[in-house]
Amino acid sequence: MPLTRRQVYFRRRLAVVGGGLVALATAFYLPLTLLAPVQEVAAQVEAFETRAVVQPALTFPEYGASAIGAVGYAGVLASGGSADALPIASISKVITALVILDAKPLAVGEPGPDIAFGDADVALYDAQVAQNGSVAPVYAGQVLTQRDAMNVMLIVSANNYAESLANWAFGSQEAFVEAAKVWLAGAGLPSTAIVEPTGVSPSNISTSTDLVELGRIALSHPVLAEIVGTPSIDIPELGTIENTNSLLGITGIDGIKTGTLDEAGSCLLFSQDYVVGDTTVTLVGVVLGGPDRPTINAAVQSLLAQADAGFQSVTLVEQGQRLATYDTEWGDESAAVAASTLSVVVWSATPITAASSPEDVQLAEAGTDIGTLSFTVGNRTLDVPLELSSTIDDPGPWWRLTHPLELF
After folding, report:
1. Which pLDDT tens digit goes with each residue over 218-270?
2. What is the pLDDT of residue 5?
3. pLDDT at position 331, please?
4. What is the 3-state secondary structure (H, E, C) of the chain?
5. Are 377 and 350 within 8 A, CB to CB?
6. How far apart are CA 147 and CA 325, in angstroms?
7. How many CB atoms lie within 10 A of CB 87?
8. What are the domain boundaries of the chain?
9. What is the structure's pLDDT at 224?
10. Cα–Cα distance for residue pair 78/23, rounded to 1 Å
11. I want to staple 117 with a disulfide (CB 3.0 to 4.6 A). Which of 142, 239, 340, 395 is the partner?
12. Residue 211: closest CA among 304, 76, 81
């Protein structure tokens, strides 16, 4: 049956409208699907394990107080014996030197001003000899530079030179003591007290924790660090003087100060440079209250050997190590990987934590920076960049046209 004119007209209108709709849909749908940005792909972060914390077993002397720490490590790494403030004998002279250098600064290689010694200095010498104190010769009219006088005070532990330097720098022993109190407070040594500059008084006291920090402060001063590491030196009119620290130069020991007093026993504030891989660790420690010098020297060497073994070079992450993955809706896969290897020297008991923050990505080339892997190593923070392991490509027109819901 032939179509009526009305039916033909209707069908033509339907074709026109349908064609228009198709054209309209094509005009909007194709650009929207082909040009729309793909949605970001979230990272699937993988579990990351850090090394276990192990406290090395250190054997401390049964007498007095002992502790060991390191430059760059807060507080002490380990300690033994008494936690009380004990007499520190001639370790006091390290504080005396630092207080004097604070008032009368010296640079490495600089002699400093001349110091003229007189009858009052000779009287200080006589008084120290009378109480069997450690001394070095002095005479009225003698002139030494500040550096040479400090060499004598610290290297041969001359009590009379400590007193003469304190008087020269501050005018009196009493003024020195007041300056020392201010310096100790500023240095953060709350358990340390100094009542005179030599250490002959048992009222010069400190804790092993404070003394480890004192050792770090001393080593940070280039002039003082140079003096305490000097085995022997020629002093004008005094000749060659020898360091009282007989451990200097043995297994990397390079300081710092001996001390001996009836009430204090044998004492040693010490430091050692120890090489771990390509890193030098500077250990700082103290032993107080030893029965004699040979016993305390053996204890220090044993303690250092144990502490040295407690440092390790640890690889925290290796270049290319995967930290997170990316799986796209169109089948591309990639990963967030470490951009470089990171190794660090740590004390075995140092806690290490890690946190990664890979970013969400869209389309990106291999090697694109996509976040950070952060390590907390004790009180330090170390970062390694994260990069994309392989390129995430555009899904292509067919996928775009057939997956509109994944685009919008």
Report:
1. 999 999 999 999 999 999 999 999 999 999 999 999 999 999 999 999 999 99
2. 58
3. 83
4. CCCCHHHHHHHHHHHHHHHHHHHHHHHHHHHHHHHCCCCCECCEECCCCCCCCCCCCCCCCCCCEEEEEECCCCCCCEEEECCCCEECHHHHHHHHHHHHHHHCCCCCCCCCCEEECCHHHHHHHHHHHHCCCCCCCCCCCCEEEHHHHHHHHHHCCCHHHHHHHHHHHHCCHHHHHHHHHHHHHHHCCCCCECCCCCCCCCCCEECHHHHHHHHHHHHHCHHHHHHHCCCEEEECCCEEEECCCCCCCCCCEEEEEEEEECCCEEEEEEEEEEEECCEEEEEEEEEEEECCHHHHHHHHHHHHHHHHHCEEEEEEECCCCEEEEEECCCCCEEEEEECCCEEEEEECCCCEEEEECCCCECCECCCCEEEEEEEEECCEEEEEEEEECCCECCCCHHHHHHCHHHCC
5. yes
6. 63
7. 23
8. 29-52+316-406, 65-309
9. 98
10. 80
11. 142
12. 76
**pLDDT at 34 (0 to 100):** 53
Q: Which regions in the chain score pLDDT beneath 70?
A: 1-38, 398-408
Predicted local confidence at residue 397, as pLDDT: 74
Residues shown for the chain: 408
CB 92 within 8 A of CB 194: yes
Radius of gyration of the chain (CA): 37
Rounded Cα–Cα distance for residues 244 and 259 (Å): 9
The CATH superfamily label for domain 65-309 reads DD-peptidase/beta-lactamase superfamily (3.40.710.10)
From the centroid of its chain, how far is CA 237?
43
pLDDT at 404: 65
Model pTM score? 0.84
CB neighbourhood size of 383 (10 A): 10
> How high is the pLDDT of residue 162?
98
CA 222 to each of CA 108, 146, 287, 307: distance values in angstroms, whole numbers, following the listed order = 7, 15, 24, 25
What pLDDT does 33 receive? Answer: 52
Residue 299: which of 131, 62, 45 has the closest Cα? Answer: 62
